[in-house]
Prior knowledge:
This protein has 6 helices and no strands. By secondary structure, it is an all-alpha fold. The longest helix has 23 residues. The protein starts with a helix and ends in a 20-residue tail after the last helix. The relative contact order is 0.04.
Amino acid sequence: MSDTEDALGPLPQPRRKKGAPRRRAVSAEELAKKKSPEFQEHLRNIGFKAGRTKTGGTVATPKEAKEWAATRSLDVMKFMFDVMTDEDQPTKERIRAAQWLGEMSMSKAPVEQKVEVNHTHDIGAMLLEAQRMVSKSLVDVTPLIDVTPQKGGEND
């Protein structure tokens, strides 16, 4: 400690810039360890591996596990039924068990989706807007010609 710190107490640390990451001092031994070939090999070994969810791969459930679970499904259904009918269980848990059993046995009703499409576009207005946009652009482009039939003509 310096004389100033003795008189005033510990001095505050300078403020960090906002968003700047904190840097940890790395000792020479630690730096040498991180650059060693053994550590580099370790990093390669813990990197991406096919079949690991954490690093992007997924492991397929073994066939034996699926078969074992299938043989226990009746026990699971009985357990959930017991939870649903047990008066000592909280109502919330009984409702969850009933929902689970219902989802297993009843098909879900299809959801009706109604789609309405209302077009209020006027082709003449769209062409005028395109003409206005082209005239404002800096690119030398020939003007658009409106080819929509006029209202009140012979063919109306």
